[in-house]
Design goal:
Elements: E1 7-8, E2 19-22, E3 25-28, H1 36-40, E4 45-46, E5 71-74, E6 79-88, E7 93-98, E8 104-108, E9 114-118, E10 123-126
Parallel strand pairs: 1-4, 5-10
Antiparallel strand pairs: 2-3, 5-6, 6-7, 7-8, 9-10
């Protein structure tokens, strides 16, 4: 870049560690959901897990939901807007970035584009131009 200036179900998680990592996924066991078939019937439902039940993040990791509300800034220091949502269209997550003027842009959340995520400063630094 050149710089010129669903449905809901209430319940609780079961077990002492209701959330665990498996490959690149996060698994959760819900109280009262004992079989694969019962779990399959809930596909597409909204499931919430208490934050304290989530696995600790390693250095450089971030929960995608934590990106919402962060400011997105490019390598030139220009603000692209604020992360309004993180979408999943298949290949990789995509940041839906809302500008102050109400426009939106989609920014791929991939290493080739995202330079850094600074959780403490609430900032995502990207290689992305204002005119993209």
């Amino acid at each position: 870049m050149h710089c010129t200036h669903g449905s809901r179900r209430s319940g609780s998680a079961s077990g002492s560690n209701p959330a665990a990592r498996h490959a690149d996924a996060l698994l959760a066991k819900l109280a009262g959901v004992e079989t694969r078939e019962a779990a399959a019937a809930l596909k597409g439902s909204l499931v919430a897990v208490p934050r304290e039940a989530l696995p600790r993040l390693d250095e450089g990791e971030v929960y995608l939901g934590d990106l919402v509300g962060m400011t997105v800034v490019n390598r030139c220091g220009e603000s692209l807007g604020e992360v309004a949502a993180v979408e999943s269209f298949g290949a990789h997550p995509v940041l839906r970035v809302a500008t102050e003027g109400g426009a939106e842009r989609l920014v791929p959340f991939v290493p080739a584009v995202v330079d850094a995520v600074d959780r403490e400063r609430g900032r995502v630094e990207v290689d992305w131009g204002l005119d993209y």
